[in-house]
Design goal:
alpha/beta; 168 residues; two-stranded antiparallel ribbon; six-stranded mixed β-sheet
Length: 168
């Protein structure tokens, strides 16, 4: 996937949050696997993932860049779009929950909204939806929430408004 094709997949994120591309992450073959964007006025950073990355180091490099935008750039809200990710980051789950998330919250992050695929994406048995769910569950203090709808994610991320429950 080239950068132009990848950028068109994030139109709903760009339109909802008026983010501008900050950095593009590519594999050695030139395929874009993640785009990090930001909107300093809204104090938001977003990462949109595409297809696959090669190593857990690739995954962690994107998150370290986001950390820098929070700690040095004043971003307070993070939207992670995992809808198009086909790589599994489960091997980074412990690092994410035990090291990275506590550090990024200490650096000033207030909330993260994770936009997930509407169904499980399988690639050689890897379930990206499941890996994301496990990571969110292990953090589980209410500051990281999962959504399938970008507008609902926006309402919660920027205004703290969760969708109304349909439970009786």
């Amino acid at each position: 996937m080239n950068q132009a094709a990848a950028t068109t997949l994030q139109d709903d994120i760009a339109n909802a949050f008026s983010v501008q591309t900050d950095r593009v992450f590519s594999r050695n073959n030139g395929q874009v696997y993640a785009i990090v964007s930001k909107n300093p006025d809204l104090k938001i950073v977003s990462d949109v993932w595409f297809d696959r990355f090669d190593t857990q180091r690739d995954f962690r490099n994107v998150l370290r860049h986001i950390f820098d935008l929070v700690s040095d750039g004043g971003c307070r809200y993070w939207l992670a779009d995992l809808r198009f990710m086909t790589s599994d980051f489960g091997d980074s789950g412990d690092w994410l929950a035990d090291q990275f998330m506590p550090a990024i919250f200490d650096a000033g992050l207030e909330r993260e909204a994770v936009v997930m695929p509407t169904g499980a994406l399988e690639r050689e048995g890897a379930d990206v939806f499941g890996a994301a769910t496990m990571a969110i569950a292990s953090i589980a203090d209410g500051r990281v929430r999962g959504f399938t709808d970008v507008q609902l994610a926006k309402q919660w991320l920027l205004n703290g408004m969760l969708p109304e429950s349909t439970d009786p």
